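Class prep. Write one:
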Amino acid sequence: MQPGAKGMWRTTPLVPSITIPHCSKNCAACNALVALGSDSKPYMGYYVLEQELQESGVEVICQLHHYYEATCECGHQTKAIPGVGYLSVVDLRGKDLQLQEYGLVGPRKRYLHR
């Protein structure tokens, strides 16, 4: 692509084959059990592309992760958030890397050896 040329990205919207709900079971303030109401809506979500091994090869599956917010009887609103993990720090690297659930490409990797 030439400098100054218009960039391109996905032109077709992602269509999930599965939606995965995430919600907190306990209030972050008082630790009481919280439940989502029937009118609950997610406050955020993101897509994940996963590889699934099929008999005929590899298929890419699109998942939609929804994160919900619940209000406890104490009045506190608790939000489910994507998890984070190990932080990799390497000298002379411009940015430290941290494992996290939030991302377009899923953690599952398949290597086909026959």
In short: The two ends are 38 Å apart (CA to CA). Residues 18-100 form one domain.
